[in-house]
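Curious: explain these tokens?
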Amino acid sequence: MIVATAPTLSEFEGRWQIDRRIRDHLAGTTGQFEGTAVFRPDGDGLAYHETGHLHLPGHAPFLAERRYRWREDGGRLTVEFEDGRFFHSFGSADRAASHWCDPDTYIVHYDFDGWPIWQAKWEVSGPRKAYEMISVYRPLSA
């Protein structure tokens, strides 16, 4: 099914399988993350919690996790850090967003064209960073 617009916030609710590839342009290596993300109701939005195992070249796999808060704001989806600080927002017409974290720039492009399978592609650049991170999300049964 082709989605002409970004899904609504409620369509993200539930459990998702995540397969993530992290290509480090400086080191010339590729890492992999395999895990799950859960979007659950939390106040006026959804709490996002992902957990899984991160495999980086030259290191033993280790448990990794992150948490965000997603909410809908005027037809846009806003992503906040767990502590409520703004991270980025995107909409149906503009599925790209950026975040400046001095001295690094984070740019994300969301792709919902294969919904309910979707992806987030991050390009990160800075004085000591240059990597691409592509996360593919697939729904998991309840």
